[in-house]
Design goal:
Chain C: One of its GO terms (cellular component) is plasma membrane. The structure holds three protein chains of three kinds. By secondary structure, chain A is of the alpha/beta class. Chain A has 15 helices and twelve strands.
Chain lengths: ~400, ~500, ~350
């Protein structure tokens, strides 16, 4: 694949020009859904390309292999969703892009931004990229803003870090950004401190901070996890809107499949530090080719399902990143696991048109009507909803569930 | 907020009154204040006892004596000690001397301690951090009186002996140079090569400088000279402009360098004025220097760099002024040393009695007397500041907003100063304010070791003589300081933290 | 800390360490042993090199001081006592030698008077050991009394709040207003002549304020935690909540407080004795010894060094132990995304 990107063919929109419909001062109440279908389609140009990225942390207990070889490409204006449980390496890999990992992290591989390897850059070049070309929105808006500086100062600071302009001008831009993300009375709010904002408002400020320098890539790390459900949708819509405003691509990192479903063009599923399934969001959601994906889908309540249908959670917990099980890391929790799975780790293989999965048995999933059905706990419907996830394969479910309950008694 | 402070103030006043009552009752029950008189021959005993009983109101109950004292204290009349000497006069002298002793030491300990703590937090687990942390533990465990006595022996007596023939052995030069080089290198965050170069350069430069100073007898007849002044001033200009802006030839650096050059030129121009100036002249010159620096920063900084340029210029001006002051002091050192029989570092008291000399010699006299007690106090109190600052900075550096600041692409300097340190200041300031109030305790021991007659002797004398009034005078000041500084801590907290200020 | 320390003492599995079926351990790569909370704390403590060194040093000082001159009527292995004078050997200089002969030293031996003799020929090793015993005793009593008092007052103020809290905290404020040296000097003069145990006790009674503040803060924050709410919602009694839920969570801070209080007490006692207001004759302590011989600094410097070194050794080792304990109980403080 060619990695030299063509020059940006579309002219960046002039955000000072205040295009129609973007400036709705008090538009909080007028709620118009803005979905992925309404947004501008992705371009072919590759802005970010991650090649064989591995991240390891030496600890007292051993080497933590947080990311074990990740490859993906993010195209201009594309939204790529990265899903996985906590500890799957999805956040660590994005932190590696931002250069925000602790010093003791061992990072290998290549992260190409418009063809230039970020990992090979000097600290100063990396810094010039951060917040200017690649911006990040963090999970917890309550703690991500500095409590002792005004919102205006913190926004203006992002401009001044990369542009030699008077403070006045930076503040004006900050005010405009607050308008853009739908914060009323932006002028007055510039002088307010973060604690005077609600969680949703703070996340809007974080979005404003992310787009203030017209970045090419926005990394959103669980941007709605800490927010109320009602606010979540508004924030996601806003994110899609501003993406089009600044023509950025979004890397959407989440454990919430619902977020991905409505937002991402393509989805990458990670497990134990590796991608296990990649494809267009529709493909991944409707025809999963990796049991883990199917399991994830089965553990989300669905409005369309019949009322009495039980959730089918994946039993067990993610493996230790210090001592990974032999073979496929998902095999201890996988209902389809065979001897082969416990011996060799499958590689990503084509499972359709631009759809890849890492599973020895993806053909069995392809043949099934409802892939999530593999996770059904036969004859033990009550166990699934209440018991703590216990380890073991479904055949032993009854036994392990009982153990799990006795052990967790003290905790409950 | 204001309501909160006023409420705190009212509570503090009540607390303070209760404390005075408690201290008075205890001080009045320490023992028999007439014990020494009972030893007198019979003919004088009766009279003396009667006189002191009358003076101390020993015939009245303790509670009445307390209120008599309190009534006096409200009129700032602290009564007399058991021998009839007015406490007010004693207290004023004692307080002056003690403040002279603890003020510089406390400021020095805070600045050094916080700086060391912050630096070692930023270099966590480096050899510098381990050294600072370990030293902090050692200093923290040192008995003040022991350190004081040790300093008297080595930093004064031995040092004065050495000054008679001030040459340094080659291995001492090597050791000092290696230590300084190592310290300087460990401050840098760069790759190994640059660090090695810095280490080698600093070590060699220090060794050469020390060798030259040793060979020329510099220590007996020191001085800096225009060359060193110029070098230091320019280095300060460079350092401050990097600290407040960046390592590039921008208006910030320009204005700092202009300030430094003005400072160097004026050190020559004002040579005559500084021969034996009045103190007011020196202060006036400092104010003038600051005004000029601010002006330079304002004009050179322009709209884009005004704030950092003014800050860098002001800091450069202060640094340059300090170097010029140092230079003047050092030039007078030989004369001063001769006038005190070649034993410049003093071990006893706050000043040489009846000393007569120039402005610089008087300053040197105070400084040489302050040197040892200050060193002892700084060593012992440094540790708690550095440990606390380190812990605070480590905690702050882990906060999400520091990560946000990095994600914005801010330079590391701005991340640390504007985001991490600014937040760390909130708990650090509070601790410092609480802690300052306790310096009177440390002063008691230090004064005893170094033979100062100040607040410490007031307290110890009062306790030994079972005399409440001097004890109460000591408590009025030291306990008052606790109350006042706790208030300041609260106000500083609110000032630094908008979450408190605006609620 | 609150979450993990919750299970302190009870042998439950710590969060994050699920106990998998034994036969599939290796297959799953989950062969991390489930550890109890106390094992975890011990492990973290033992990993702190300074704390382990502090333990060894303190143990050495304690054993040396007790075994050498004995305790009370029990005799020790050292054949001299701290009362009798003897002829000056080597002009009273220390005879201790630690440099082996093959390195050009005087060999490794204690000699007649390892720490030398004072001006009237008393054995200085025995005297220093006696001072060490007394200083340790006072420091220990003061530290424990201060911690117990501070914990009771702090915990009561934090848990019951309301009027009781404000009264207790005002009392604490009054105590804080009085500088420690003034307070300690006054109680030492009033009760110090009643023996060293009494001196330790009264010093403890004037130095508990820091502990009280710490414990109160901790209790205040813990009583707002969800698991207390949960315990209360199922009708658990206040006594049971304190014993089962709050105490296990503040035990860490209490143990750390003991060490801080002890090291502060060593220095406070020695400073008081140095000022002539602590231990009274015939008893002696390290601070008192330094005070007695401080004029001999120039002529007999060893009379000054030995007691000072032992004060530092005690304070330093206790401080290091305290640091290790704090890290062990509260690893959050230590875990840094560097």
């Amino acid at each position: 694949m060619g990695i030299t990107p063509p020059p940006l063919d579309t002219t960046a929109p002039d955000i000072h020009g205040e295009p129609d419909g973007m400036l709705h001062g008090g538009a909080e109440e007028v709620h118009t859904a803005y979905t992925l279908a309404d947004s501008k389609p992705p371009l072919d140009e590759e802005v970010l390309k991650v090649e064989n990225l591995t991240v390891e942390f030496p600890t007292d207990d051993g080497l933590v292999k947080a990311v074990r070889g990740v490859d993906y490409t993010l195209r201009a204006r594309e939204v790529l969703g990265i899903v996985g449980e906590s500890g799957s390496g999805k956040s660590v890999s994005s932190m590696a892009i931002m250069g925000l990992l602790p010093k003791n992290a061992r990072i290998r591989g290549r992260i190409l931004f418009r063809g230039k390897d970020i990992l090979a850059m000097r600290a100063k070049e990396q810094r010039a990229l951060r917040g200017e070309k690649i911006a990040m929105i963090f999970q917890d808006p309550m703690t991500s803003l500095n409590p002792v500086h005004t919102v205006g100062d913190q926004l203006a600071e992002a401009v001044l870090a990369h542009h030699l302009v008077p403070r006045r001008q930076a503040l004006a831009k900050a005010r405009h950004m607050l308008d853009l993300v739908g914060i009323p009375q932006a002028e007055r709010r510039l002088r307010a401190y973060p604690h005077e904002f609600s969680g949703g408002m703070r996340q809007r400020v974080m979005i404003a901070m992310a787009i203030i320098n017209d970045p090419d890539v926005i990394i959103a790390d669980e941007p709605t996890t800490a927010l109320d459900v009602t606010v979540q949708a508004q924030i996601l819509e806003k994110l899609l809107e501003v993406k089009d405003e600044v023509n950025a691509a979004i890397l959407m990192i989440t454990h919430d499949l619902g977020v991905i479903a409505g937002m991402a063009h393509r989805t990458l599923v990670m497990y134990a530090g590796k991608p296990v399934e990649v494809g267009s969001t529709d493909d991944v959601f409707y025809t999963p080719r990796m049991p883990y994906t199917a399991g994830l889908l089965g553990s989300v309540p669905s409005l369309e399902g019949e009322g009495e249908e039980r959730l089918r959670p994946i039993v067990g917990t993610p493996p230790s990143l210090i001592r990974l099980p032999a073979g496929c890391p998902f095999s201890p929790r996988c209902p389809l696991a065979t001897a082969e799975c416990r011996e060799s780790e499958p590689a990503l293989e084509a499972a359709g048109d631009s759809h890849w999965a890492a599973c020895h048995h993806s053909d069995r999933l392809a043949a099934a009507d409802d892939p999530t059905a593999f996770f059904r706990a036969d004859g033990e419907p009550a166990a699934a909803g209440e018991a703590e996830p216990a380890d073991g394969v479904p055949a032993r479910q009854t036994v392990t569930t009982t153990e799990g309950t006795t052990e967790s008694e003290e905790g409950q | 907020m204001l309501v909160f402070i006023v409420r705190r103030l009212i509570v503090s006043v009540f607390v303070f009154f209760s404390a005075t009552a408690l201290v008075y009752v205890m001080a009045a029950n320490l023992g028999d204040p007439l014990a020494d008189l009972r030893e007198l021959p019979a003919n004088r005993r009766e009279n003396a006892i009667a006189e002191r009983t009358e003076r101390m109101h020993l015939d009245k109950p303790v509670i009445v004596r307390y209120f008599l004292w309190l009534a006096g204290a409200f009129r700032w009349d602290l009564g007399t000690d058991r021998d009839g000497i007015q406490i007010n006069a004693t207290l004023e002298d004692a307080l002056g001397a003690t403040l002279q002793l603890v003020l510089g030491a406390t400021i020095l300990a805070i600045v050094l301690g916080v700086a060391l703590g912050v630096i070692s937090a930023l270099r966590q687990y480096s050899s510098l951090d381990l050294t600072v942390t370990f030293s902090a533990f050692v200093f923290f465990s040192l008995p003040l009186f022991w350190v004081g006595s040790l300093l008297k022996e080595f930093a004064a007596i031995e040092f004065n002996n050495w000054l008679a023939d001030p040459t340094i052995a080659w291995w001492v030069i090597a050791l000092i140079a290696l230590l300084i080089g190592g310290f300087f290198a460990s401050l840098l965050v760069t790759d190994r090569r640059t660090r090695l170069i810095a280490f080698g350069g600093t070590t060699a430069a220090t060794a050469v400088a020390l060798a030259v100073m040793s060979a020329t007898g510099w220590f007996a007849n020191p001085g800096l000279g225009i060359g060193v002044i110029a070098l230091t001033a320019l280095a300060a200009a460079l350092g401050f402009s990097v600290l407040f802006s960046a390592l590039e030839w921008n208006p910030v650096m320009k204005s700092a360098v202009i300030t430094a050059v003005i400072g160097i030129l004026s050190s020559v121009a004002f040579r005559g004025v500084l021969e034996n100036p009045y103190p007011i002249v020196v202060i006036g010159l400092l104010v003038l220097a600051l005004a000029i620096a601010a002006g330079v920063g304002w004009f050179v900084g322009g709209e884009l760099f005004r704030r950092p340029a003014i800050t860098a210029s002001l800091c450069t001006a202060v640094a340059t002024a300090m170097v010029i002051f140092m230079d003047r002091l050092l030039w007078s050192f030989a004369a001063y040393s001769d006038s005190v029989n070649g034993r410049p570092i003093a071990t006893i008291g706050p000043s040489t009695p009846n000393y007569d000399g120039t402005y610089w010699e008087h300053n040197l006299d105070s400084l040489t007397h302050l040197a040892l007690p200050t060193m002892a106090l700084v060593l012992v109190s440094l540790a708690s500041y550095s440990r606390y600052s380190r812990a605070t900075m480590l905690e702050v550096m882990n906060q999400d907003y520091v990560r946000t600041a990095r994600a914005k692409g801010l330079p590391e300097r701005a991340v640390i100063l504007r985001h991490a340190f600014r937040n760390g200041l909130i708990p650090i300031t509070t601790l410092v304010a609480y802690d300052i109030a306790t310096v009177f305790g440390g002063a008691v021991v230090t004064e005893t070791v170094f033979g100062w007659r100040a607040m410490g002797s007031l307290l110890l004398g009062g306790i030994q003589e079972r005399d409440p009034n001097p004890i109460m005078a000591f408590f009025l000041i030291s306990g008052g300081a606790v109350v006042v500084f706790n208030m300041i801590a609260d106000i500083a907290y609110a000032y630094l933290d908008p979450r408190i200020r605006l609620s | 800390m609150a979450q993990t320390a919750q299970s302190a003492g009870t042998h439950t599995v710590t969060p994050g360490d699920p106990r998998p079926p034994a036969d599939s351990d290796a297959a799953q790569g989950l062969d991390i042993k489930a550890r109890t909370q106390s094992q975890l704390i011990l492990r973290r403590f033992l990993r702190h090199k300074g704390a382990v060194a502090g333990m060894l040093l303190l143990g050495f000082v304690v054993v040396l001081s007790i075994s050498s001159i004995g305790l009370g009527p029990i005799p020790g292995w050292w054949d001299k006592n701290y009362v009798n004078s003897a002829d000056l050997v080597n002009r009273g200089r220390p005879t201790l030698s630690v440099v082996p002969e093959f390195l050009g030293g005087g060999g490794m031996h204690l000699g007649e008077h390892p720490f030398g003799q004072d001006n009237i020929g008393r054995d200085y090793f025995a005297l220093t050991m006696r001072g060490t015993q007394i200083s340790l005793l006072i420091a220990f009593i003061t530290g424990v009394v201060a911690t117990v008092t501070g914990t009771l007052i702090g915990a009561a103020a934090g848990f019951f709040r309301g009027r009781l809290e404000s009264v207790l905290m005002r009392i604490t404020d009054v105590m804080i207003t009085i500088p420690t040296i003034l307070f300690a000097a006054m109680v030492a003069v009033m009760w110090g002549n009643k023996g060293v145990a009494v001196l330790g006790l009264v010093l403890g009674l004037v130095t508990w304020t820091q502990v009280a503040r710490l414990v109160r803060g901790e209790v205040l924050s813990i009583r707002e935690k969800e698991f207390i709410e949960a315990a209360r919602s199922v009708g658990t009694s206040a006594a049971r909540i304190i014993v089962k839920h709050i105490l296990p969570n503040v035990i860490g801070i209490i143990i750390v407080s003991v060490t801080l209080a002890i090291s502060a007490a060593v220095l406070l006692e020695s400073a008081l004795s140095f000022l002539g207001m602590g231990v009274q004759p015939p008893d002696t302590s390290l601070g008192r010894i330094i005070n007695e011989y401080r004029t001999a600094m120039v002529t007999r410097p060893w009379l000054f060094y030995w007691p000072g070194i032992f004060i530092i050794a005690i304070a330093l080792s206790v401080n290091f132990i305290g640091d290790g304990l704090r890290d062990a109980f509260d690893p959050r403080q230590n875990r840094v995304r560097d």
